[in-house]
Amino acid sequence: MSAHELDHLAIAVPAWGPAGAVLNRELGARWASGFRMDVFSPCQLAVAQDMRLELLEPGSGEHSFIQRFLSNNQERPAPHHITFKVHDIRAAIAGARDAGIEPVLVNLEYSQWQEAFLHPKDTGLGFLAQMVQTSHSVEELTGSAVNSRSCPWEQSDSAPLRLTLIHGTVASLQQARHVLCNVLGAREILAEAGPLTAAFHWDEGAELLLTETPRGGIEGQNLSSRTHGIHGIVAVPADVKWQLSEHWDELDGLLAEGTLHPELGLSITSVGRVPAVAGP
Length: 280
Prior knowledge:
By secondary structure, this protein is of the alpha+beta class. The chain is about 20% helix and about 35% strand.
């Protein structure tokens, strides 16, 4: 096992502003940091318990992998990757190779931030998985950078929600289970979920719920696309002790009630909170 935390969900967007405004309005997510780069421009928003959501805007250079990703998705925003923090990046890379997966974009040059990625064509997860070893926050690493930016939308004063669940679909649950448990250190929960659905837990961060479907869609749910990958998130007030195992019988209804936000390419289900309106 290598990962000890599901750290954040990253979403590719044409521009930070529209997506960030939605996350602030629906989740109370607060601007944490943002900076511009040639290849891509990331910003992070913090929700309760300091879990992050990251927005990835195309960089200023002509060879932007985020622009390529958006172009392949008909210029529509969509979840891009999930970042897992690991105790030992070299052990994580070795574990992936032992499982028959060759990490890509491996960068061990800087001690403050070392990373490697697992490509969805190798994992079957439907999303890119980033493994990171770091003892620093993004703000600590980039706060004094000359290319740092301030929040481009007006923020509401609503309390941040807790991101408790990320859900999506895969072509093979058996393959996804192998990667998540044996490579990324997840513990599978909800054995009663059935042969086509599984939930995964880490010591910190949101849980991950995956359903095996032939084409990526789930009947009756308002999903952002027909491809496999991440389709939505569930959030609750920070002081609510919401556990997936205690709400399993009502989960299908909760997911179906999620609102699809084109600015993000995913649905949001907010349990027990009325979205606040940004101030004047």
